[in-house]
Amino acid sequence: MQQTTRPRLDRDARREAILDVAQDVFLDEGFAAASMSTIAARLGGSKGTLYNYFKSKDELFEAFVQRRCVWHQEAIFGDVSDGASMREALTVFAHRYILTTLSDASLRSLRLIIAEAERSPEIGQLFYENGPRRGIARLAGYMTRWAEQGLLNIEDPEAAAQFFMGLTKGRFHMARLCNVIPELTEDQAAEEGERAVRTFLRTYGTEKA
């Protein structure tokens, strides 16, 4: 049994190591300037090793995008207690969403992905479906449950989820995207998140909320 499972674990670890290095190269040099040779050199291996895992630079970039989306989703929605009240859960989501979405790391990746979406629309589609679209669907699932409990008065859970996400990052997103202001502090994110929750509940909350 050990002989069949260990190679897969080693391969997964190697794949993650490649993605770690590729991420740094893509962010430092941009997609066009990045090369498989540079990634292999930083990794300390050969291009042949890279091609054993990824058939092309495009495929490697797609894997980078997908991994960023997974990390982003888990940073926002992971480990929220089922026993949390709606207001508590929304406050947690808002705080995490602001800190994650407006972080330097997330925005550097976003700028790179948007730039590549012009050249390769499928990259934009991949990012949207695995990132924003999936996040909206996950939040809409919570809102559907809260509506069924009589806590929210909503007809379209996905529209409500989009509205909430817009409230959380709206004031600072463009300034951060343009690198005009620094990352928000924990206190700023908490204050902005609480403001978003209050506004959202005034719009959609019932008396039970």
From TrEMBL:
One of its GO terms (molecular function) is transcription cis-regulatory region binding. Residues 35-54 bind DNA. Keywords: DNA-binding, Transcription, Transcription regulation. Residues 12-72 form the HTH tetR-type domain. The keyword DNA-binding applies. It comes from the Bacteria. This is TetR/AcrR family transcriptional regulator. It comes from Phenylobacterium deserti.
